[in-house]
Amino acid sequence: MQPMPIIIARNAPWPHLSILLQSLVLASLGGWGVATQEGPELILLWTLLVVFGAVAVVFLVRLLDGRPRIVIDADGVFDRHLGVGTIPWSEIHEATLFAVEGKPFIGLGVIHAHRWVARMPWYKRWSAALGVRWGYRPMNLYLANATVDPNTAYRVVQRWLDRKRERRSTDSLRGEETG
Which position among 96, 120, 131, 148 has the lowest Cβ density within 10 Å, counted as fewest Cβ atoms? Predict the structure, then answer.
């Protein structure tokens, strides 16, 4: 039997690096202006310094974050973006690959979706409810800016689901033989 594939994807560095550099430039302009200017424009310059300095810190942390963002393995599917932990294969019954404005997603058909949605932070629950209204699943793996090819990730999820189905059919056949 062929070994089952495992995917461990992290955040792609380039989008974070781009925003980090842009934020540093704007924060630096604000800092330079605060140091050299006087008058009412200081409010705008301080705002530039504080806001884009904070954005730079956030994206520096994201750039240096080495934790996996998406893991697909024998335990199930984990997406740090969802914030619900690992969804075991016993809860997943199907998957679909789709894109919204060019951003790839894998929609997971989850048996007890309401339980998983309840684990999400409030703003992600709101987003999931809005997505369901638009015809999407409540549990979606966001693959944009991850270090994995969306088609590869989808094929791996399908292989794990096929394996789960094969085991169920084998188990049911064994049950018929013994019963």
Answer: 96
Count of domains observed in the chain: 2
> Is residue 20 a contact partner of residue 169, using CB atoms and an 8 Å limit?
no
> 108, 139 in Cβ contact below 8 A?
yes
Encode pLDDT of 39-96 as tens digits: 888 899 999 999 999 999 999 998 888 889 999 999 999 999 899 999 999 999 999 9
Model-wide pTM > 0.85: no
2 class by beta-carbon count within 10 Å (0-12 exposed, 13-18 middle, 19+ buried): exposed
Query: Which is nearest to 72 in space by CA: 159, 138, 11?
Result: 159
Q: What is the DSSP letter of 65?
A: -
Containing domain of residue 160, as a range?
70-178
Is residue 162 a part of any domain in this protein?
Answer: yes
